[in-house]
Design goal:
The complex is a heterodimer of chains A (338) and B (284).
Chain A lengths: L2 H9 L12 E6 L3 H18 L2 E6 L2 H10 L8 E5 H9 L22 E2 L4 E13 L23 E4 L4 H13 L8 H10 L3 E5 L2 H9 L5 E4 L1 H9 L5 E3 L6 E8 L7 H12 L1 H11 L12 H6 L13 H18 L3
Parallel strand pairs in A: 1-2, 1-3, 6-7
Antiparallel strand pairs in A: 3-10, 4-5, 5-8, 5-9, 5-10
Helix pairs in contact in A: 2-9, 2-10, 4-12, 5-6
Chain B lengths: L11 H21 L2 E4 L3 E6 L2 H8 L1 H34 L2 H12 L6 H12 L4 H8 L13 H25 L3 H9 L4 H12 L1 H17 L2 H7 L6 H10 L4 H29 L6
Antiparallel strand pairs in B: 1-2
Helix pairs in contact in B: 3-4, 3-7, 3-10, 5-7, 5-11, 7-10, 7-11, 8-9, 10-13, 12-13
Classes of the chains: A alpha/beta (338), B mainly alpha (284).
Chain lengths: 338, 284
C-alpha cells in the first residue's frame, strides 16, 4: 500500500471539509485575540481591495499541519498561518506550494531569512521566547536565562511544557546556556532536571501563566513578549526582558497548501499582510514583530518587539526541530515532567 | 415459519454505518500503525512492528498504561460505592420519587463534558473555591493539590460517569424478585446478611455491566484527564492525542491506540467470564 493511498483514504476522514466558491478564500489562523487582530489588519483590507470574502478557521500550528496532511495535497485551505518548523515539515512531505516571489510585491522589503524552505513559506511576523518577570518582585530586571536556574528564584518559576513552542525554545536556551546547542541538548535536560523539583508548574496555555502571575504564585517564566505585553496592558504585573545570551526567535509564516482552490487570491492575501500598513497594524494590535524593513514602530509595540532586536535573536534551524522534536518531547516526558 | 435470514435485512443501515464509519478507519489505522515514521520524511514504505515493540518495551509507556488502568479501577470502584446506595434508594422509592431521582441522575448528562470539567477546575484550582473556603475556615494553611494530578482526574471522572453506573444498576435491582428478600426476612435473616447474600449477588449482572462501561469510558476519556490532569499528568488517551496532534507521529499514536483497545477488549472478555461464573443458575 502506498503512501498516497493512506493519505487519500485519510482525506475522507479529514476534519471540517469546507468547500469554497471562487470568491471565497479559506484562511487558517490562530484563535483568540489573534483572530480579532488578523480580522482587522489582514482580512478586512484584503476584502476591501479584492472584493473577495474570507472564511477563517481557528486552530494552532500542529493541528493545521495534521489537517493539511490528512487532506493530502488537496487542501481546503488557501492560506495557512503556521510556525516555520511545521512549514518545513509539510514542505518535506510535499504538501506546500513553492511560492512565486514575483507575485508578492512586498517581498523585496522583507528582512533576511523571511523566505524559507526553498520558497515554500514566507515569514510575516517574528516573535520570541524571552523572559517574563514580575517587575514588582525584581529590583533589577533579569538579563540572563540563568535567572531561571538561580536558587534565589526557586519556587517562583513556571516553565513552559515542551508540547508548545516556548517549551522547545526554553530547552534550547538552557542547553546553549550550559555549553550545549541544538545538536547537543544534554546540558539543557541536565539543568532543567536539577530545578524541576522547584518548578511551580509546567504551563501550556496563556491563561494558565497569566493567572499565576496575577495571583503572585510565580515571578519568572520563559514566555512570549507579545503575549506578555498584551497581558501587561490588561493590568497583569508582568514585563519582558530579552536575555543577553539571545532570546530564541520565532518565525511565524504563511503558506499556500497544495490543492488550494484560490492560489491567486492567496498571493494577494499574503502580499497585503506583508505590506507596511498591515505590518504596523499587526504590530500595534498584537505586538507582532514586523518583517517589513520599511516599518518603524512607536509606543508600546516598539518596547515589546523592537525591530532592532530582530538581529540579536537566535533562530534555531526549523528542519532540525521538525526532524527531532518528537524525540525531544519523549525524552522530556520521561526525564522532566514524568 | 419465515426463513431465518429475513431479519438480517434490518441490520443493513447500521452495518453500512459501522463499516464506513468504524471498520474502515480502524483498518486504515491498523495498517498505519505498522509503518515507520520520521519527522522530516513522514510515513515510510516498509512494514514494521517497531511501534508496538516500542510501546510494550518502554518503561514510560508501561507507567502510563499502568496509571490508566489504575485510574479506571479507582473510578469504577468509586462509582460503584456511590452509585449502589443511590440505585437502591431509587428502586425502593415511590414511583413519583423514582422518576424525579432518575431525572436528576440524567440531568448532568445534558451538560457538555468540557463545561463540567471546567466547573471542576474552578472548584479544585489552587486558589479555587474549595481551597479558598478551607483556608478561610483555617483548616489548611497552604492550598491542597487537588488538580493537575490523579486526585483531580478521579474526582472529575467519577462525577461524570456516575450516572451511567446508576442507570445500569437500577434495572438490575428491579429485576430481583421482592419475594426472595421477603422470604429471607421471614426466616429471621439480619438486614446486612440479606444485603450481602441476596441483594448484592443477584445484582451482579448490573454491577458487572455498569463497571465495564465505567471502566472502559474512564480509560479512554480524553477531555477530563486533559483538563484536570494538566499537561504533565498523562494517561493513554492524552498520550495518543499528543502523538497524533502534537508530534504528528500517527503510526506511534495508532499503535498506542491499538494497545489500549486490546487491553479494553481483554478486560471486557475477562469480566464477562467472571459474570458468567457468578450468574450461573439464574437469569436476571
Amino acid at each position: 500500500m502506498s503512501k498516497l493511498m493512506f493519505t487519500t483514504a485519510l482525506a475522507g476522514a479529514a476534519l471540517a471539509a469546507q468547500t469554497a466558491s471562487a470568491q471565497e478564500v479559506v484562511v487558517g489562523l490562530f484563535g483568540g485575540s489573534f483572530a480579532e487582530a488578523a480580522e482587522e489588519c489582514h482580512v478586512a483590507p484584503f476584502e476591501e481591495q479584492t472584493g473577495a470574502s474570507v472564511i477563517t478557521q481557528n486552530s494552532n500550528s500542529s493541528q493545521f499541519a495534521a489537517q493539511i496532511r490528512a487532506t493530502g495535497g488537496d487542501s481546503d485551505f488557501d492560506v495557512v498561518y503556521i510556525d516555520n518548523s511545521f512549514a518545513e515539515q509539510l514542505t518535506a512531505e510535499g504538501l506546500l506550494q513553492q511560492l512565486d516571489m514575483s507575485k508578492l510585491s512586498n517581498s523585496d522589503d522583507l528582512v533576511e531569512g523571511a523566505v524559507g524552505a526553498d520558497g515554500h513559506y514566507v515569514q510575516y511576523q517574528w516573535g520570541a521566547t524571552a523572559l517574563a518577570y514580575n517587575p514588582e518582585a525584581f529590583d533589577e530586571k533579569p538579563t540572563s536565562w540563568s535567572a531561571v536556574f538561580d536558587p534565589a528564584n526557586a519556587g517562583k518559576v513556571a516553565l513552559p511544557d515542551i508540547s508548545g513552542t516556548a517549551g522547545v525554545h526554553f530547552l534550547i536556551a538552557a542547553a546553549r546556556l550550559n555549553g550545549g546547542d541544538i545538536d547537543n541538548l544534554d546540558p539543557g535536560y541536565e539543568a532543567i532536571k536539577k530545578i524541576s523539583g522547584d518548578v511551580s508548574a509546567y504551563y501550556t496555555q496563556a491563561d494558565q501563566i497569566i493567572s499565576m502571575f496575577e495571583r503572585g504564585e510565580i515571578t519568572l517564566a520563559p514566555w512570549y513578549p507579545d503575549r506578555a505585553a498584551a497581558a501587561a496592558d490588561a493590568g497583569v504585573p508582568v514585563a519582558i526582558s530579552y536575555p543577553d545570551e539571545g532570546a530564541i526567535g520565532i518565525k511565524v509564516t504563511m503558506v499556500i497548501p497544495e490543492g488550494a482552490a484560490n492560489s491567486e487570491a492567496a498571493y494577494k492575501y499574503i502580499d497585503n499582510a506583508l505590506s507596511a500598513e498591515a505590518q504596523t497594524c499587526f504590530a500595534n494590535k498584537m505586538y507582532a514583530g514586523p518583517v517589513n524593513k520599511t516599518v518603524t514602530l512607536e509606543g508600546p509595540a516598539a518596547k515589546a518587539v523592537p525591530p532592532e532586536m530582530y538581529d540579536t535573536l537566535y533562530f534555531p534551524d526549523p528542519a532540525v526541530i521538525a526532524e527531532n522534536v518528537a524525540d525531544w518531547r519523549r525524552r522530556w516526558q520521561r526525564e522532566v515532567t514524568r | 415459519m419465515r426463513a431465518p435470514s429475513t431479519g438480517y435485512g434490518l441490520l443493513t443501515p447500521v452495518l453500512a454505518l459501522l463499516v464506513a464509519g468504524f471498520l474502515a478507519p480502524t483498518a486504515i489505522m491498523a495498517l498505519l500503525s505498522l509503518r515507520t515514521y520520521s519527522g522530516m520524511q513522514g510515513f515510510g514504505d516498509e512494514w514494521t512492528l517497531a511501534n508496538y515493540i516500542f510501546v510494550i518495551g518502554d518503561p514510560y509507556y508501561l507507567l502510563i498504561i499502568g496509571r490508566t488502568l489504575m485510574l479506571g479501577l479507582i473510578v469504577t470502584a468509586a462509582c460503584l460505592l456511590l452509585g449502589f446506595p443511590l440505585a437502591l434508594f431509587i428502586q425502593r422509592s415511590r414511583p413519583a420519587v423514582q422518576t424525579a431521582a432518575i431525572l436528576l441522575v440524567i440531568f448532568p448528562l445534558l451538560c457538555n463534558i468540557v463545561v463540567r470539567s471546567f466547573g471542576w477546575m474552578v472548584l479544585l484550582a489552587p486558589r479555587g473555591l474549595i481551597n479558598e473556603a478551607l483556608m478561610a475556615a483555617g483548616l489548611i494553611a497552604t492550598p491542597l493539590d487537588l488538580m493537575y494530578n490523579l486526585t483531580g482526574v478521579i474526582i472529575g471522572l467519577t462525577q461524570i460517569f456516575l450516572p451511567f453506573m446508576v442507570l445500569l444498576l437500577v434495572p438490575a435491582l428491579q429485576n430481583i424478585p421482592a419475594d426472595v428478600e421477603a422470604a429471607a426476612f421471614t426466616l429471621k435473616s439480619s438486614r446486612p446478611r440479606v444485603f450481602l447474600t441476596i441483594t448484592v449477588p443477584l445484582a451482579i449482572p448490573g454491577i458487572i455491566t455498569g463497571s465495564i462501561l465505567v471502566f472502559v469510558l474512564s480509560i479512554s476519556a480524553l477531555v477530563t484527564p486533559r483538563m484536570l490532569g494538566g499537561p504533565t499528568y498523562k494517561v493513554m488517551a492524552t498520550q495518543i492525542y499528543d502523538e497524533f496532534m502534537t508530534n504528528l507521529d500517527w503510526p506511534a499514536g495508532a499503535a498506542l491506540a491499538f494497545v489500549l483497545t486490546v487491553i479494553a477488549l481483554v478486560l471486557i472478555w475477562g469480566a464477562n467470564r467472571v459474570a458468567a461464573h457468578f450468574t450461573r443458575g439464574f437469569s436476571a
